[in-house]
Amino acid sequence: MQPFVVIGGVAAGMSAASKARRLRPDWPIIVYEQGSHVSYGACGLPYYLSGVIPDYRKMIIRDPEYFLKKMQIQVHVRHRVLAIDTENKKVLVKNLDTGETFCQRYETLLYAAGASPVLPPVPGVALPGVFPLRTLEDGLALHSRLQDPVVRRIVVIGGGYVGLEVIENLRLLGKEVQLIELEERLLLHFAPDFSAIIRDELEKNQVEMHFGESLAALRGNGHLQTVVTEKGEYPCDLAVLAVGVRPNSDLAKAAGIALGYKNAVAVDRRMRTNMPDILAAGDCAETYHRLWRKNVYLPLGTTANRQGRLAGENACGGQAEFTGVLGTSVAKIFSLAAAKTGFTEQEAAQAGLAAASSIVETIDHAIYYPGARRLHLKLVYCPRSAVLLGGQIVGSEGVAHRIDVLATAIAARMTLQELGEVDMSYAPPYKGVWEAVVVAANVAQSAWEKAKG
Ligand SMILES: Cc1cc2nc3c(=O)[nH]c(=O)nc-3n(C[C@H](O)[C@H](O)[C@H](O)COP(=O)(O)OP(=O)(O)OC[C@H]3O[C@@H](n4cnc5c(N)ncnc54)[C@H](O)[C@@H]3O)c2cc1C
Fold first, then answer.
1. pLDDT tens-digit profile of 206-218?
2. Which of 230, 300, 389, 423 is the most exposed place for a label (fewest CB within 10 A)?
3. Using CA atoms, how far apart are residues 28 and 73, in angstroms rounded to an integer?
4. Measured in angstroms, how far is the CA atom of residue 60 from the centroid of ligand 1?
């Protein structure tokens, strides 16, 4: 019997291996991971930088020894797959410690090679002092450099979720932080008013921000000294690059595996590639979007785990279909949380759908119970049917749970009225008697009725 071979041992790869083991106890399962660690929560890395997570080992869910002893899954770290021979169903593997290469046959292969940080094509991007943040190794290297008191001034390039999470944690360390952002405002997929609320929060926390600036060069004499944009020069001791990721699909492409949206590995709803017995999952692969009704590229840990689990099931002969994503995501930004699900009005327009929206400002729990904070909600809906299409929330408490309520409502194709009529819980420390999501739905429903006349 040939084994189930997995390339990549983080979220998608280990979810698949674990699921396959549960379904087929006797099948040999082998995972090759080029890094030194598997099964870790990369999402915790920003918090490790500041010491909120004091020990990086806490982010490692399970190690190779656990997988071998408890699950009979062979995990080989520091082993890179160099090539996939689809005809003879084998992979060429290099042991990065010994330099030895060898071939391994497979019955089924899962390509779960993840994504890599985008490195802007500017001079100096490889200078010491310029750090991406993607892998645990990246996190350890950056953490170690931040311990040096000489590192005081830091430029973060890119103000997406990862950049903003890193900024908060650098400020917790007492570093001086400047943000360089290409766009004219933060988080373009949020309403402009919401971007302004987040910008104010960064300002309150002494983050200097530069909008509409494109990175031109990273300069220094043997070590980064200045970040240069088209508009200015920013002397610094260190820079963090957080301008997005691209799928690790080169190896797949070289093997003849078809690529799709944004060069991610093309997959069907069962996570099958165009090659027999080769599945793909996670940040290297496309994702089916429930509203677009087609594949997109939305690399997220939630999706990687779901796709990986499903690929593990299908590797064992299952026929499970991925139901899709809505791009539901949330990030902590100092004392705020910002979350989004489904379509913005612009995305709806791109998908050929008419969309209307309504924004409410309310509070997160009963006004008379101490600590009530502002909560901003935006609902995007179909102007004909009043079916919910998207939502955004910015606030302090309960943002993550509320965005999940909106995601559930979108998945269930609920109308504003139906959402407003859901029987939600209430207790003064947690909620208002009119829950914020219900308030937002009712306000949008009134606007919809008025517009209809
Ligand atoms: C700082 C940070 C914060 C994040 N926060 C969140 C969050 O809050 N919520 C969320 O949903 N997502 C978050 N993410 C994204 C999430 O971490 C990823 O979506 C998830 O890790 C993807 O898992 P994956 O297994 O598909 O890919 P990866 O985690 O990229 O793992 C793929 C692995 O494959 C290995 N590999 C690649 N090529 C080969 C090869 N040829 N041979 C052997 N091994 C190979 C790589 O070394 C890598 O370890 C965050 C990411 C970062 C970096």
1. 999 999 999 999 9
2. 423
3. 7
4. 13
